[in-house]
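Notes from hallway chat w/ T.B., transcribed later so I don't forget. T.B. wanted the structure written out for a chain they're using in a teaching module, and asked if we could keep both sequence and structure tokens in one place. Agreed to drop them here.
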Amino acid sequence: MSAQDSRAVVLGRIRAALAFATPAPVDVPRNYDHTPFCGIGNTDRFIEALTEYHARILSTDPAGIATAIASLVSSDGRVAVPYDVPTEWTHEITTVVDRPEKPLTVEQLDRCDAVLTGCALAVAATGTIVLDAGVMQGRRVMTLVPDHHICVVFATQVVDTVPQAFATLDPTRPLTFISGPSATSDIELSRVEGVHGPRTLDVLMVAAKPHVPPSST
């Protein structure tokens, strides 16, 4: 039997086997809860998921935000911040401000020891922080270049599920989803952090409503 005939025999047997083993169509449920979330999500689950992703979490109240941030950077460290981050967060650190009229260059961001932002919301089920370039978040590049990201998350910004997050977010905005430090792995599952973004993610979990600067209203 030639090689071509052997191939035909093998393929014929595969087709015959599949003819009797075709799985029935699966009915995938689509009844997700798409309504925006009201209240406070499961912050304990959010912290647990973040910890699994190798992020570091500090719990604080509004009065302790500045001190908590200062504890995460060296005394001579330079921290990139969006122009609308509250000054009461930053009075204990040295900041480099990104302004719409004078944005920081990639080189300037790369020389910063960390970046400090707020967030749009956070998802408890997946330990995900979502940025949408809104208030206190700055441009997407700010959280991709520095090796250390410090993110302030308020308890009232935590939702329980991904569908609830999408129901709340504006899909026309530039959305960035962050689940722990940037990481990848090779075929042997050797984890390497910091390849595509910050190597370190510190999250300040604040039990209060977020401060909204007057200029954003």
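Follow-up for T.B.: The chain has a mean pLDDT of 86. Might be a good example for the class.
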